[in-house]
Amino acid sequence: MVSSPALWLIWALTSTTFASADFVSDLSGKGFQVLVPGSSGYANASTAFNLRFTFQPAAIVYPNNAQDVSTAMKIGAHYNHQVVARSGGHSYIANGLGGKNGLLVVDMSNFKTVSVDSSTNVATIGPGNRLGDVALALNNKGRALPHGTCPYVGIGGHSGYGGYGFTSRKWGLTLDTIQSLDVVLANGTIVTASNSKYPDLFWGLRGSSSSFGIVTAIHAKTFAAPASSTVFQYNWDLSASSAASAINAFQTFVVSPSLPQEFGAELVLGAGSSKGRVSFGLTGGWYAPANQFAAVIAPLLAALPKPASQKLTVGTYINSVQYLGGLGRLSTIGIPDSHDTFYAKSLMTPEGSPMSNASNLAFMNYLANQGFGTNTDWFVEIELYGGTNSAINNVASTATAFANRNSMFTIQFYTSAKGGVPPFPSEGFTLLDGMVNSIINNNPANWGYGAYANYIDDRLTNWQTLYYGGNYPRLQKLKDQYDPLDTLNFPTAIQE
Ligand SMILES: Cc1cc2nc3c(=O)[nH]c(=O)nc-3n(C[C@H](O)[C@H](O)[C@H](O)COP(=O)(O)OP(=O)(O)OC[C@H]3O[C@@H](n4cnc5c(N)ncnc54)[C@H](O)[C@@H]3O)c2cc1C
Ligand SMILES: *[C@@H]1O[C@H](CO)[C@@H](O)[C@H](O)[C@H]1NC(C)=O
Ligand SMILES: *[C@@H]1O[C@H](CO)[C@@H](O)[C@H](O)[C@H]1NC(C)=O
Ligand SMILES: *[C@@H]1O[C@H](CO)[C@@H](O)[C@H](O)[C@H]1NC(C)=O
């Protein structure tokens, strides 16, 4: 592309991808590992979880403590390299690599502490831990946190933007459990943010963390691990109209006054057995005595056709976490992660205005027809965020940067290239756009929906409002205050 040597020099001097010798030598010899283009291990370390993205960081560093993070941050800023944290690397759009070329990536994988204060039950968790390892370490102390099911997701990104699992109706999102955060600011200053120290920063870090700093320790309140947990799974193969009625029934069920917080669930939809049909699953967790579950689920089952299959798995809390993780183990130590090549979207539906029957029918018709025989694999998860007395919605929308506190569902639309390897076919984008539009176009024009920043979407327009609602202007002011030089920048960073 750039052919003449003179032009190359100009390009190199002006391009942010260019890692100068001074930049590299300043990072070196500081007591932490540094990888730059050409280093052995750089190619692997710069590979995104989602192979739809390839980015070339200027350098990847592996600090061992907050002081190292501060050192790296200052060097990055000095040489005009924007800086980004990576914890588990599971960002859907490779924001842990900066979401573009030329950043300084601060990889947090050496931050692996998990400890629990035995008097307060507050856990101190290094952001480089994966969810499976956090669950195991807390369970060893009889404690637990609300979080997602995938064992390899990093707690660093997960807790910065939400953190939903089947215990969230009872315990809230992962970010709702945070009491304080140790964080390195864009100017390299190390602070602890809480409701009493840097309260405005603390507010922004819970919902939009990477725009404001690099978190080096998460201090989170924990909960007693329930004595018994039941994972439930029901499956149907339904016509589009039966599937639409089943969603209607689920929407009615979740707002019944008697629904306990110990009930967490999602609907899982996929291609049915033939064109015109939908694979329809109900799965979730029940975190109270197993013998009470039948009475809780009975009204819903009574409103649905007889399931084609069903399974209840009763055990300890940690059994349920492992079972839901789907790998037959929770530990991730020493076993590398897998990859996928995918695109995902999300839609957070307002509890006060459930999806109309027309919308459910249009949506199910779309899945049953356009979703059948496509050249990508896909699934949809309709995750229950709201319903009666949900702990997620018991938090005010302005209490943290996470604004969407009145949702009934977060719907995740996910499609991957066949075999999970590139290239990603562009029909995948069209398929998912059509799914989302089948819902939005069949609800009121002023329907108050949002989107979920942990299911981050590189093609979403108006993401500022959909992710952050009325909190966005306050986030912009904070960005101006804490990162005036825009050192912490990536495609969906808060813009001053
Ligand atoms: C297979 C899979 C399953 C999932 N299941 C669930 C689920 O059940 N529930 C749910 O809620 N979500 C789920 N997610 C989404 C997941 O919560 C997000 O992708 C999450 O942001 C990943 O965090 P990470 O640390 O692994 O990713 P990273 O790519 O490392 O980071 C994600 C973002 O957070 C920032 N960040 C990371 N660490 C820090 C830090 N220490 N300080 C400041 N900013 C930081 C990064 O810069 C980046 O912008 C799933 C994702 C995948 C891939
Ligand atoms: C929508 O469907 C539900 C359940 O099938 C039904 O009770 C309700 O009356 C329907 N609403 C409308 C407006 O048709
Ligand atoms: C590649 O990087 C991952 C971490 O991202 C690590 O677990 C794995 O061991 C590395 N593989 C090689 C061959 O270095
Ligand atoms: C770094 O930024 C913080 C937050 O804006 C500020 O309080 C602090 O004084 C700054 N430190 C330096 C050395 O400029």
Please give a structural write-up.
The chain has 496 residues and is an alpha+beta fold. The chain has 3 domains: 28-107, Uridine Diphospho-n-acetylenolpyruvylglucosamine Reductase, domain 2 (2-Layer Sandwich), CATH 3.30.43; 114-225 and 472-482, Uridine Diphospho-n-acetylenolpyruvylglucosamine Reductase, domain 3 (2-Layer Sandwich), CATH 3.30.465; 229-458, Vanillyl-alcohol Oxidase, Chain A, domain 3, CATH 3.40.462.20. It is 29% helix and 23% strand. It contains 15 helices and 18 strands. A 7-stranded antiparallel β-sheet has the order 15-12-14-13-17-18-16. It has a 5-stranded antiparallel β-sheet with strand order 5-6-10-8-9. The chain has a 4-stranded mixed β-sheet with strand order 1-2-4-3, covered by helices on one side. Strand 8 (178-184) and strand 9 form a beta hairpin. Helix 5 packs antiparallel against helix 11 and helix 12 runs antiparallel to helix 13 (427-440). 51% of the residues are buried. The model is unreliable at 1-16 (pLDDT under 50). Residues 185, 187, 189, 481-482 line the site of one 2-acetamido-2-deoxy-beta-D-glucopyranose (NAG).
What tags apply to this protein structure?
single chain; 496 residues; alpha+beta; Uridine Diphospho-n-acetylenolpyruvylglucosamine Reductase, domain 2; Uridine Diphospho-n-acetylenolpyruvylglucosamine Reductase, domain 3; Vanillyl-alcohol Oxidase, Chain A, domain 3; 3 domains; 7-stranded antiparallel β-sheet; 5-stranded antiparallel β-sheet; 18 strands; 29% helix; binds flavin-adenine dinucleotide; binds 2-acetamido-2-deoxy-beta-D-glucopyranose
